[in-house]
Amino acid sequence: MQGDGTRRAAPAAGSPGVREAADVLNGEQLRRITSTHRGFTYQHLYAAGCLLRLREAQAQLLRVERDEDVEIVFDDRHLYIQVKTREDNLTWGDVRGAVEQFDGIRAEHTAGRRAGTPWLIVVTNADLGPDLQARTRQASWPADVALVGPERPHPAERWLPVPGRDLADLLDWCTAQAERVPFGSLSAVTLVWKLAARVQYACTGAHGQEFAATELPPLYEQFVEELQAFPQLPGVYRPHDGEPDLTSEEPVRLVVGFSGAGKTTWAAHAAAHCPHPVTYFDVASIPSASVPGALARELAARHLSRPEAETLPAADGIDVLRAVHARLAQAGTTIAVVVDNVHQLAPDEVRMLAGALPTARLILLGHPRPEQIPLAAHLGITAEALAGWSIDTVAAVFAAEDCVVDYGTVQRVLALTAGLPLYVLNSAYLTSTAYAGDGTAFCDAVQAQTHTTATAQERILEEAFDLLEPRARTVAALLAIAEVPLAVAELQQLAEVAGLRPAHAARAVRDLAARRFTQDFIGGQVTLHDAVRPVASSAADDLLDGVTHGIRDALLQMLEGQRGLPQLGRWMRLLTETGRVEELLDLASEEGFYQSGYPREIRAAVAHAAEDSARDTVIRFEAHNTLATWAYYDGDWQACARHVSAMERLAVNGDSGIGPRERALLAARQFIVYGHDKDVRRLTEAFTAGLRQVETGSAEEPALRSSFAQALYHAGEFDRADVVAQQVAEAYRAYLGLSLDDLGGPIAALQERLHASDSPDDYKRLADCFSLSVKSRRRQGIASGAETVAAIPAWKLYSITGAWREAVDSGQEVVDILVNAGRMQQALHILERQLLSMAETYNLPEMIFGLRSHRAVTLAYMGDISAALAEMDSLSGYEPTPEQAADFCRQKAIIEALAARQRPPAR
């Protein structure tokens, strides 16, 4: 029969475990034996049910088979329970003996030989017969005798088990109660049958035929031990950039990130510095319905004594969690709870956990999911993300794997991995094992999608990427092709080319944002998260060729004219991807082209144009000029000379397209080669020949003289270089109408004059002359004083003309001037706030190494030796160029000498 009183269907004949009377010689005997065992089993299950409720009822102990089937002793009362099972109605004859025997029991209590008020309770699975029912309504029926059945609970002892119509009903009720036992190590039904067996054993006289309430925890096999702990920290813990504390003012924090972002490791490390005791709880592989109870066990085991934990009230999991929290709150104990893999729980389940622990510091760790947005809103918080490792940490990881990485390569790794720890570690390992430690080769292969070993980053993110709808994958592909942040209107335009309606594209962007695949900017622009780019690029490969070409053409038009460095760099790469090299070479002819970090990927297209005999001679000439200039800035003198030779051949064999401008350009490049070769004779001859190619007083003449001065410097003719540079500077200054007061005045005033000028490039050439004069004098041993202050106007002019590379270089000259003058704080301010920021903003990684070592030595001059040495130690993970290495050694020697002065003399 079911618990609602309906009758169960009888087992079918021949069913397993069923033996019909026809199968035995004496069917009546079988029915009698079966009924007897059924009655005893019912009695034992009922006693087990009483045990499961014993602590809730606040009873002292339970006895079996003494004066009655079951006896329960309280401080103030004593219950005598007789269990009667019947297939028909219960009659007066069934209970008469128990009622009459109870007269004697009552007398013992009245005489004081037994304590407490006695009560007789007859428990039955049956309905009351008419006769018995009539007797219970008579005034003579004893007030201390009650008949309890399926629909007749005891009026006072409401905690008593509900009698089932049959064994199955009673077993269901007991199982439901067993599920409420806090911290049980057995399944509920197993616990019930174990208790029933222990009751049966006690009925034989074992253990004094009684169960004390204090003995129930081991009988229940309550397992109040902490099962979870933070994962083991790595031998060397590397913190995230700007790593936060574990707890904050917010009672609940939601920290999200892709798998491998280092959330758990961060929490484990931060726990050691948390002012509150911390419990770690991972919900992975735990059924969501079991999470509250399992978390309650962890908290009880860590923060409550075992007796306190074992005597928590029987309740469902979330109620046990609330009970644990209540005891901690009563004791004034504030705890921190880290719940890992919280994305596996439904938002309502997370809210329920937070509601059950109102005074705890709750830190939720999980993967980004769309449903976390309303969850965070409900909790009144904003989802957070760890920043990942800094560039120095990435360099240290690669150095630990014996990989060769310069500053620029580490920046590329950072862009590919977003600094997420697992991705960086895996990248360093693959670089070491599959690319012979060559970080550049690894980055090239990953960006070109030619690597043959899948990275952990790809495996992890591909799983997340597969959860996206097709429209979201398409928008991710568009963002991957774009590479740069896009405004809403721009993204909509590309989406239309891909066949997406605006509403669908907007929905796709929301889906990507909800999974943290995108990053938003204040101006409403959106771009892909760096870590997602490699995987999203594969989605771009799935687009039809015609669609991809259309997207690139639309993007090219969209970015044309934009001068933000990322947008300009992407536009240049698009020029090469769409075969428009001529426009790229026009751009390379501008003064500022080489002043910021141009995309190195465009070199291949320019080199191809230079060697393409089918192209126009002037185009090939310009291409070799661009390649020669790049080689000059890279310090690759052999390559520079090779391209200058190619320019000479083209000029000799060229057509009318090679005019005065091109011949002056060639002369300037020849100056570089002759100067580096220290061939002053040929340099002077080339300069004389070059002057004949330009008109006196033309714009080309001072530019040629400036290039000659640069070549003299490279040739070691520092005094001549200084003289020529000063002469050209005076010519430019007079032509531009700039006084010495103008150059020493506010930079904003110079900026206004530049904008109003018809020849802005001449401001940059004036700066070149000032800078060269300072460098030449320094090489002659003049390190400071009035003769080197030209570095200041050079720095200003470079800054306003966007010549960022030279601005940084001349800015360092200014720093040295300030240091020599004892103005250390101002020098440090320029290094940190202006020069380093400029190099990072305009993608000049090759200059950052030197700037940071310069910063370190400036700190040492200020007396902060520990900070100086820490900065130099951070740089040790990078592979420097020979020039950088020499500079690094010089700076370190200065720092160590300054440190030696600070040490007290040895005794």
Overall structural class, as computed from helix and strand content, comes to alpha/beta
Counting DSSP H or I runs of 4 or more residues, the number of helices is: 40
Share of residues in strands? 5-15%
Strands across the major sheet, in which order? Answer: 5-4-3-2-1-6
In CATH, the topology of the domain at 27-220 is named Trna Endonuclease, Chain: A, domain 1
> Given this structure, which CATH class of the domain at 27-220 is correct?
Alpha Beta
**How far from one another are the termini?**
96 Å
Percentage of residues assigned to helices: 55-70%
Shape: elongated
The quaternary structure here is single chain
Q: How many β-strand runs?
A: 12
Overall mean pLDDT stands at 85
CATH architecture label of the domain at 27-220 = 3-Layer(aba) Sandwich
Biggest β-sheet, characterized?
6 strands, mixed
What is the alpha-carbon Rg in Å?
Answer: 43 Å
Provide the low-confidence segments as ranges: 1-19
Explain how this protein is built:
One of its GO terms (molecular function) is nuclease activity. It comes from Streptomyces montanus. This is CD-NTase associated protein 4-like DNA endonuclease domain-containing protein. Residues 35-92 form the CD-NTase associated protein 4-like DNA endonuclease domain. The model is unreliable at 1-19 (pLDDT under 50). The strands form 3 sheets. Strands 5-4-3-2-1-6 form a 6-stranded mixed beta sheet, sandwiched between helices. It has a 4-stranded parallel beta sheet with strand order 7-10-9-8, with helices on both faces. Strands 11-12 form a two-stranded antiparallel ribbon. Helix content is 58%, strand content 6%. Among the domains are: 27-220, 3-Layer(aba) Sandwich (Trna Endonuclease, Chain: A, domain 1), CATH 3.40.1350.10; 252-379, Rossmann fold (3-Layer(aba) Sandwich), CATH 3.40.50; 389-453; 465-543, Winged helix-like DNA-binding domain superfamily/Winged helix DNA-binding domain (Arc Repressor Mutant, subunit A, Orthogonal Bundle), CATH 1.10.10. It has 907 residues and is α/β, with parallel strands linked by helices. Helix 18 crosses helix 21, helix 31 (718-736) packs antiparallel against helix 34 (760-779) and helix 35 (791-801) runs antiparallel to helix 36 (804-820). Strand 2 and strand 3 form a beta hairpin. It is elongated and about 140 Å long. It is built from 40 helices and 12 strands.
